[in-house]
Each structure stands twice: as structure tokens, then as C-alpha cells.
Amino acid sequence: MDAVWAAREPVSVRDVMGRLNDGRAEPLAYTTVMTVMSRLAEKDALARRQAGRGYVYEATAADPAGIAVKNVIRTYGEEAMAHFVDQAREDPELLRRMEQLLREQ
Known about the structure:
Elements: H1 2-7, H2 13-21, H3 30-42, E1 46-51, E2 54-59, H4 64-90, H5 92-104
Antiparallel strand pairs: 1-2
Helix pairs in contact: 2-3, 4-5
């Protein structure tokens, strides 16, 4: 994910493989990187779209926390949101920030 975030634009498997293998004693195989990126796309951590004969990928969240929150909400839905709100109610600063974010959207 760090290689995808660092690119700041859609990247191919070959692009990511090049970044990951830069300076590695034993380079990762193309198929290894492709498998991991495909699995990350299946889990909605990466978005994938056709580009020529292959795919390009981009992150669906700006950081690991964003991916974790998406996964929790996707898995637990309304129950997870209720817990987020309960936590915010216990912390006035967090509640203020949550309200601000909702207004900005």
C-alpha cells in the first residue's frame, strides 16, 4: 500500500513491483505482487480499472486508518456507526470534529 500511496496516481503491477524491488537483494516475482494487489482490490483497499491489456490500481483510502474504517463499516454497518457515535459522545472534542466533518461533506 505504501508504494501505491507514494505514487499519487494510478499504478500498474509492474510500477509497484519496481518500487518494491528497488534495493531488494531478492526481487519479488511479478505474480506475487499481482496476487497481493488483486486481493487488495477484492477487499476494496485498491480500486482497479482496465488500462490496455492490464489494470491500473489506486488506493481507496488515504491511509491505513481509512482502510480499517471502511472494512469495519462494510462488515458491521450500522452497528459500527453506532459505536463510533457512542465513542464521540464520550469525547467532546471528538464529537465536535465529527460534526465538523459531517457539515463539510
